[in-house]
Design brief:
Length: 401
């Protein structure tokens, strides 16, 4: 390590790499003077200083990068591959937009902040990352999205049933259902419970997000399912910024082994970030020509927008196989349209689903072992017999755990 580029240190809890003198001074004041964290400063850009970094004892790395500095961005990406999650990395940027957020999520940084940075916020992020990094056996969450290709295809019903299947496998406190349609809150209506999430209040006080606040926002169904949903307000746009939503989802993923997200069909500013941070994205459609075409377009759009980092798979809901060759669509038509992007099909059991929704109960409360649940289990757990699907939520997993 070049001594001209560092301050004297007693520990290397946090290494800060930055070419910005003012930023380093502010961080030194907030973190170093606090006495809670040992900090080491490295003056310079990451591309230049990377060969001189000694990360053997570091517990958190803070990297200050300019978005226009291509060498530093490339060095950051290479570094993330090299450390492979061993050290939480907090990134500070001069510019922040949805494209930058998607990229930071894809390379799996622990947290990201935009300048000007409140040193207190950075210190809080470092402390959380340090606390997360001392865990010897982290249990990352599996994040599963359900997004409808068009209206009325039953995506919410499948999201709820998927959550129930995961609860039965992993226990009553294992799974959280997150309803991101803040205008309709259909999940709460399906479950007949009161949603508690006040996104307007959280947006105003996002700096106070923690596990205690999260617990207040959660609703519990008698089946054991936990819901994070907002009070429905059809006339409100339900605006919430990407950073705040990412922080909320990060807390949820730290609290629960499984997170099911009911994603609205209309694309929002944060949709890319949510999908990119997930392990499975299921596009739900029905067995109609418009439905299959809409699903095909949505899957292709997800691949294009997320640069093939996340692939959407299609669930064809309300499937009915006709014995007559001239009476509508057949399984061969589905295969032809969707090909390898077909995750599976779920049989049409409209009467059962309708009764469960009207009564606010689970499908198995009415008919145990229903074909809907059975076929959804095949989709959810198809690969887990070989490789357990336990992946971290990528946006701020280390900082939130």
């Amino acid at each position: 390590m070049d001594p001209d580029n560092t301050t004297q240190r007693t520990t290397s809890d946090v290494i800060v790499v930055s070419p910005d003198d003012a930023f380093r001074n502010a961080v030194t004041g907030a973190i170093g003077i606090s006495g809670r964290i040992g900090v080491q400063m490295v003056a310079g850009g990451l591309a230049v200083m990377r060969p001189h970094l000694d990360l053997d004892e570091a517990r958190v790395l803070v990297v200050d990068v300019e978005v226009a500095n291509a060498p530093d961005l490339a060095a950051l990406q290479e570094l993330m591959v090299e450390i492979d999650g061993r050290i939480p990395v907090i990134v500070v940027t001069d510019v922040f937009d949805d494209a930058i957020a998607r990229w930071l999520i894809q390379i799996r940084v622990a947290d990201f902040l935009r300048k000007p940075v409140d040193p207190t916020d950075l210190m809080r992020s470092c402390i959380k990352a340090l606390q997360a990094n001392v865990r010897t056996e982290p249990k990352p969450s599996r994040i599963i999205d359900f997004i409808p290709a068009m209206g009325g295809v039953g995506a919410t019903t499948l999201a709820i049933e998927a959550a129930i299947q995961l609860i039965r496998r992993d226990g009553s406190d294992s799974t959280c259902l997150v309803d991101l349609d803040f205008q309709q809150s259909a999940c709460a209506d399906h479950l007949d419970i009161e949603p508690r999430f006040d996104f307007a209040e959280i947006a105003r006080r996002s700096d106070r997000l923690d596990m205690q606040v999260l617990e207040v926002m959660l609703s519990k169904h008698r089946s054991g399912l936990t819901l994070l949903g907002a009070q429905p307000n059809p006339a409100s746009p339900g605006l919430i910024d990407t950073m705040t939503l990412t922080g909320i989802l990060d807390l949820v993923s730290a609290r629960f082994a499984n997170v099911i997200i009911d994603v609205p069909r209309d694309w929002r500013a944060w949709t890319d970030v949510v999908l990119a941070g997930s392990d499975d994205v299921f596009v739900v459609t029905d067995m109609t020509v418009p439905g299959l075409r809409a699903a095909r377009r949505l899957v292709d759009s997800i691949l294009e927008r997320l640069h093939r980092q996340v692939a959407g798979k299609v669930i064809v809901n309300r499937f009915e196989q006709s014995l007559l060759p001239w009476s509508g669509l057949r399984k061969a038509d589905i295969d032809k349209t969707l090909g390898p992007d077909l995750a599976g099909i779920v049989a049409n059991n409209y009467r059962l689903v309708r009764e469960a929704i009207d009564r606010g109960v689970m499908l198995d409360d009415i008919k145990p072992g229903s074909n809907v649940g059975r076929e959804l289990r095949k989709i959810l757990f198809a690969e887990e017999d070989v490789v357990p699907a336990k992946m971290p939520f990528r946006p701020l997993a280390a900082a939130a755990q």
